[in-house]
């Protein structure tokens, strides 16, 4: 399993735009994508991240690197990436492999 977790720090006043962009990303996969196990996003509730301005997170879980590549190249992801610079002051991703049930 490949886990792809992204943390977002929106520009001032862009939090709702980031909500919309994340929702549109998730909606872009409602018909499914081979190897996409789960795609979730939400507003951060952890004080340590909020104190640094990181208000949102997004988690994608994939069966393998090939599934992640399909996601990365998918038009819904391309649209999402196209709007992030106008919404975010900073963002970073963490990718790691895990075993199911971890």
TrEMBL record:
Signal peptide: none
Residue ranges of domain Stress-response A/B barrel in the record: 2-96
Pfam family, one: Dabb
Gene3D superfamilies in alphabetical order: 3.30.70.100
InterPro entries per record: Dabb, Dimeric_a/b-barrel, HS1/DABB1-like
Subunit structure: Homodimer.
Protein name, UniProt field: Stress-response A/B barrel domain-containing protein
